[in-house]
UniProtKB/TrEMBL annotation:
Modification sites for N6-(pyridoxal phosphate)lysine: 213
Keyword Acetylation: no
Species annotation: Lyophyllum shimeji (Hon-shimeji)
EC numbers for this chain: 2.6.1.42
GO CC, any one term: mitochondrion
Protein name, per record: Branched-chain-amino-acid aminotransferase
InterPro entries in UniProt: Aminotrans_IV, Aminotrans_IV_CS, Aminotransferase-like, B_amino_transII, BCAT-like_C, BCAT-like_N, BCAT_family
Organism lineage: Eukaryota, Fungi, Dikarya, Basidiomycota, Agaricomycotina
UniProt record similarity statement: Belongs to the class-IV pyridoxal-phosphate-dependent aminotransferase family.
Keywords: Amino-acid biosynthesis, Aminotransferase, Branched-chain amino acid biosynthesis, Pyridoxal phosphate, Transferase
Catalysed reactions listed for this entry: L-leucine + 2-oxoglutarate = 4-methyl-2-oxopentanoate + L-glutamate; L-isoleucine + 2-oxoglutarate = (S)-3-methyl-2-oxopentanoate + L-glutamate; L-valine + 2-oxoglutarate = 3-methyl-2-oxobutanoate + L-glutamate
Cofactor: pyridoxal 5'-phosphate
One Pfam family in the UniProt entry: Aminotran_4
Domain of life: Eukaryota
């Protein structure tokens, strides 16, 4: 996707500055924080953050990497009133020689661009932002955990900062990036996590914003999530009513996959389509492409025979269909995928006052394990695959 859309100068303005990594200002912290022993998701922040602002008359300011700390914003800023807030989720990993690595970061930049466009925030140069993110990672690389399954979570964010209450797009913005060391998002040591299927409250709808990573997509799910937790479920399985059926969309903040046994012994791996209601996850895309590569003979996934065919399908899945597959003994496993969780088993689904128990209640099956192992190996540079893992060299 084009990353360098230009902003037309307003009347009287001579030049609107583009985002330019060569103008970076670096102000390092005088005192560095101790690295925490336990990496709980989002709890600890690294020493530094990246900040750059946009004004309609001047464009993007000089980027600055400076010590992590709070902002001062006008109380009437658009981000507080109308929620033009977008963000990304990406991670840095330690490679075989101790080098920091990113995973398919160009995909994150493309998605951030699409999200910013959806809420009419100012455009930015994806390549320049990625250079700045890599510089931030290099400065704070000591924060990248080396423990298996751990990483440094990176949160690029853009918020509207227009200081007026008129209902209109924000022509001012603040772009910032901060980072936090993290371990596993969920504890799956006891097996697959339980989901509560919900259709009376929807996460997204056709023509809405579910296909973009916007802050406004998340808050409406907090109350249903609280209800699900009281009922003994870890996450929500979001259903979308459609012509008398309930279509599966997302599992919490994860993309949903189910593996179904075919009559010929091969396996169908089915996930809902990107119809605008589902976030186009980078891990989702990677899993689909790895499954296809296995079946095409371009790679062999760990623990799966080369002769085992894995046919991927991006199509609607209804709860009625999933229940029928389960009752017929055709479901091999179900799992969710995402940046935070990588690949996570789904053990049961509460629906219409009963639980649909899945084979992955005991943990990941053969397909989920293979994908998790291969994705982690690519992310950490132990397995090279199509340039997906990038060494941070700036």
């Amino acid at each position: 996707m084009a990353a360098t859309a230009k902003t037309s100068p307003p009347n009287g303005a001579a030049h609107i500055a583009e985002l330019d990594a060569s103008k970076l200002i670096v102000n390092l912290a005088e005192t560095l924080k101790p690295i925490p022993e336990d990496a709980h998701f989002g709890e600890h922040k690294t020493d530094h953050m990246l900040v750059v602002s946009y004004e309609p008359t001047t464009g993007w300011s000089a980027p600055e990497i400076k010590p992590y700390g709070p902002f001062t914003l006008d109380p009437s800023s658009s981000c507080f009133q109308y929620c033009p807030n977008v963000f990304e989720g990406m991670k840095a990993y330690v490679g075989p020689n101790g080098e920091p690595r990113l995973f398919r970061s160009n995909k994150n930049m493309e998605r951030l661009t699409r999200s910013a466009e959806r809420v009419a925030l100012p455009p930015f140069d994806e390549k320049e932002l990625l250079v700045l993110i890599k510089r931030l990672v290099m400065i704070d690389k000591r924060w990248i955990p080396t423990k298996e399954g751990h990483s440094l979570y990176i949160r690029p964010t853009i918020i509207g900062t227009r200081t007026a209450l008129g209902v209109a797009a924000s022509d001012s913005a603040l772009l910032y990036v901060f980072m936090t060391p993290t371990g596993p998002y969920f504890d799956s040591s006891a097996g697959g996590i339980p989901l509560q299927a919900v259709s009376k409250t929807v996460r997204s709808w056709p023509g809405g914003t579910g296909g973009h990573k916007l802050g406004l997509n998340y808050a409406p799910g907090f109350l249903p999530q609280r209800v699900a937790a009281k009922d003994g479920y870890v996450q929500i399985l979001w259903l979308l009513p459609h012509e008398g059926e309930e279509r599966i969309t997302e599992a919490g903040a994860m993309n949903f996959f189910v593996v179904v046994k075919r009559d010929d012994g091969d396996l169908d791996v089915v996930t809902p389509p990107l119809d605008g209601t589902i976030l186009p996850g980078i891990t989702r895309l990677s899993c689909i492409e790895l499954l296809q590569a296995h079946t095409e003979g371009r790679t062999v996934l760990p623990g799966i025979p080369a002769t085992q065919r894995l046919y991927t399908h991006e199509r609607p899945i209804t709860m009625r269909e999933l229940a029928a597959w389960t009752e017929e003994g055709k479901v091999v496993e179900a799992f969710g995928v995402g940046t935070a969780v990588a690949v996570l088993p789904i053990g049961r689904i509460g629906h219409e006052e009963r639980d649909l128990v899945l084979p992955s209640q005991e943990g990941l099956g053969v397909v989920g394990k293979a994908l998790l192992r291969r994705v982690l190996d690519i992310q950490t540079g132990r397995f090279e695959w199509e340039g997906w893992s990038e060494v941070c060299e700036v």
